[in-house]
Amino acid sequence: xxxxAKYFGTYFIAAAMMVLFGCxxxxxENTAPPTLTAVTNLTNRSAELQAVDYGDWIMIKGANxxxxxxxxxxxxxxxxxxxxxxxxxxxxxxxxxxxxxxxNPITVTTKYGTATLNFKIRQPAPLVExxxxxxxxPDDEITIAGNYFKGVSGVTINGVNAAxxxxxxxxxxxxxxxxxxYGPVVITTPVGSVTAAKTFGLxxxxxxxxxxxxxxxxxxxxxxxxxxxxxxxxxxxTSAMFVNYKGWGAVxxxxxxxxxxxxxxxxxxxxxxxxxxxxKKIRVSSTNGxxxxxxxxxxxxxxxxxxxxxPLINIGSPALIEYLDFQEFSNNASQIYIDDVGFx
Length: 344
Fold this sequence. Notes:
- This protein has one helix and 32 strands.
- The protein has one helix at about 1-30, and strands spanning about 35-40, 50-55, 55-65, 70-75, 75, 85, 90-95, 105-110, 115, 120, 125-130, 140-145, 155, 160, 165, 170-175, 180-185, 185-190, 190-195, 200, 205, 215-220, 225-230, 240-245, 250-260, 265-275, 280-290, 290, 295-300, 305-310, 320-330, 335-344.
- The strands form eight sheets. Strands 21, 23, 24, 26, 30 and 32 form a six-stranded antiparallel beta sheet that branches. Strands 22, 25, 27, 28, 29 and 31 form a six-stranded antiparallel beta sheet that branches. It has a four-stranded antiparallel beta sheet with strand order 1-3-7-6, with no helix packed on it.
């Protein structure tokens, strides 16, 4: 009995010590509300930053932060797995997308209170993936697709302001301004401006609702059907070309007077791929008399229009063009539609 009592006595003493130390630990926990003073990056923790970007890792400086429960960036919470708090700092990864393009206050909630630091967290510069259609006339509506368009303040085409119809983070709709038929597309947000890789429109037209500027087509042996006024599948306007290719067949445009490429840098063409054309090749080349250019291959997309821009340098920068060829180069008898052919 003495032995049992001894063991029970030891157990109760140990338990009492645990309770005592636990209470002491609770009493020592910092219960002051949090304060936020600055933001730094993780490589130079002494240099205070005035602004950072979406998706950055940062360190938030302050006090009484050990019991942090959440970090809120203007309504968007940081992931718990990407947040580490100590009493005087929080290491956290900013989410990839936030509410505002630039002004995104940081709010920290701890067990004992909340604190907010007004701070600039910027979205990246506008990213333009594409716009459609690739050509048009004044008052046509153009849809620009991409990302980081929040707060868009302006879109210009060839330096002229285009009226913004609507905008979201990933899409802008604009009207082609009066007097503009071609030119670079520039998008401006609070973060900066960016020029789309694709240019708008045609400086010189070969085909647009019909052949233009004395161009003709030839090489009828290369296709089964060539319809210059197809009405069923059109990029824009009223008609497009329909081509029922033979394998290795070609659409050949000809200008007897020969086209002088001075002042032009790019061949432009829009192609819609029919059934079985996805990933198939079309080889682009030109000829002037007996002088044939180098070649360049483009890949068709089935079931959608693709606006191609082929730099003239890619076919050897020909000075004069009599024939411009688009040859099916996968030995695939197929159907395609063509629109907006010309130069920029």
